[in-house]
Specification:
Layout lengths: L1 E9 L3 H13 L4 E6 L4 H7 L5 H9 L2 E6 L12 H8 L4 E7 L11 E7 L9 E4 L4 E4 L5 H17 L4 E6 L7 H13 L6 E6 H10 L6 E4 L1 H14 L7 E5 L4 E5 L16 H13 L3 H16 L13 H12 L3
Parallel strand pairs: 1-2, 1-3, 3-12, 5-10, 8-9, 8-10
Antiparallel strand pairs: 4-5, 4-11, 6-7, 11-12
Bound molecules: 1,4-dihydronicotinamide adenine dinucleotide and magnesium ion.
Catalytic activity: D-threo-isocitrate + NAD(+) = 2-oxoglutarate + CO2 + NADH; (2R,3S)-homoisocitrate + NAD(+) = 2-oxoadipate + CO2 + NADH
GO molecular function: homoisocitrate dehydrogenase activity; isocitrate dehydrogenase (NAD+) activity; isocitrate-homoisocitrate dehydrogenase activity; magnesium ion binding; NAD binding
Keywords: Magnesium, Metal-binding, NAD, Oxidoreductase
Length: about 325
């Protein structure tokens, strides 16, 4: 089987880390066809659109997409983030952010959790307005039964696949009785269909504290868009932060895998960016494609290069971006 992968480097360090991830994928005994597309500020400057329709077509044609990062220009009126648009247009409803301890002093020990964030609704539907001559601003928080059910279902499926027996649904139903309340009710209903899992619930503020106090106690955390945005960033800082945090955006028809970090303009073109977040995202893509054996190998090797400090300066190493990719490829020969 030949896997067709859309490759969207984007801006800044995006193309560098995606190149590193591609090299790692090419070192595996699998067949790839790359569909390279443009996205971001560079694409806007060339084509007047940060997400050209050709790029959307590539994503739709591909089995999966690997995406780097984009730069948001400071003051271009009416500029719409291509990342949000991509998630909406392709209905990539689930954002998965795994957080696992790494063998490095910046990481807390024994953490193995997954944040599952609803990606399409909540306060992020963009229904904001000014009232009272601009003296009052109002945003609508939209929660639907359909989105709540499907995010809980994918959370429970992920819990089974990853052997994480605990699924914690996180909400604020004590205050947001209708919106968070609906999410809570539907998620508990769906959770009841998974008797092999331990489903429990937590208020979002408690969860923010517990993540710091006892991160080892969590398995899957499933929540609505805004809470998930915040908690997933918090969780990634427990285990090494931006240079390592990887993510998946999953839809019914396709999926987009991306490092959590942005385009880090100050590092661009200097061979300094840590590629492990992009390489970890490529490992998540391998899982999605059904190549879970190779996904586990890549994850194992990421841990080994960190343990041996074959890493970039952000993790205390002296290697460049592409040197880390080469180290990963070298270590892959021995697993
Ligand atoms: P950033 O993630 O680009 O950088 C934050 C800090 O982390 C910087 O100090 C940077 O040097 C460091 N860093 C990030 N990735 C790294 C890596 N792979 N290796 C080593 N160090 C790394 O976030 P920032 O600076 O807030 O935003 C820069 C640009 O990226 C902005 O235009 C922003 O809008 C965009 N952005 C794009 C995202 C995306 O494409 N999904 C996500 C976040 C920001
Ligand atoms: Mg990103």
């Amino acid at each position: 089987k030949i896997y067709r992968i859309a490759l969207l480097g984007g801006d800044g360090i995006g193309p560098e880390v995606i190149r590193a991830a591609r090299r790692v994928l090419e070192a595996l005994p699998l067949c790839w066809e790359w569909l390279e597309g443009e996205i971001g500020w560079g694409a806007y400057q060339r084509w007047g659109d940060p997400l050209p329709s050709e790029t959307l077509t590539l994503i739709r044609q591909a089995d999966a997409t690997l995406f780097g990062a984009v730069t948001t220009p400071p003051d271009v009126p009416n500029y719409r983030s291509p990342v949000l648009r991509m998630r909406q247009e392709l209905d990539l409803f689930a954002n998965l952010r795994p957080c696992r301890s790494i063998p490095h002093p910046i990481s807390r020990p024994d953490v193995h959790l997954l944040v599952v964030r609803e990606n399409t609704e909540d306060l992020y539907v963009g229904r904001e307005r000014l009232e009272e001559n601009g003296e009052t601003a109002v945003a609508e928080m939209v929660i639907t039964r359909r989105a709540s059910a499907r995010i809980m279902r994918i959370a429970c499926e992920q819990a089974r696949q990853r052997r994480l027996p605990r699924v914690t649904l996180v909400h604020k139903a004590n205050v947001l009785r209708q919106t968070s309340g609906l999410f809570r009710r539907v998620a508990l209903e769906v959770g009841a269909e998974y008797p092999d899992l331990q489903v429990d619930e937590m208020l979002v503020d408690t969860c923010a504290m517990e993540l710091i106090r006892a991160p080892q106690s969590f398995g899957v955390i499933v929540t609505t868009n805004l809470f998930g945005d915040i908690l997933s960033d918090e969780a990634s800082m427990l285990v090494g932060g931006l240079g390592l945090a990887c993510s998946a955006n999953i839809g019914e028809h396709t999926a987009v895998f991306e490092p959590v970090h942005g385009s880090a303009p100050a590092l661009a073109g200097k061979n300094l960016a840590n590629p492990l977040a992009a390489i970890g995202s490529a490992a998540m893509m391998l899982d999605y494609l059904g190549e879970d054996r190779w996904a586990r190998c890549v994850e194992l090797v990421i841990h080994r290069v960190i343990a041996d400090r074959q890493v970039t300066p952000d993790l205390g190493g002296t290697l460049g971006t592409q040197d880390v990719a080469e180290a990963v490829i070298r270590y892959l020969q021995y697993v």
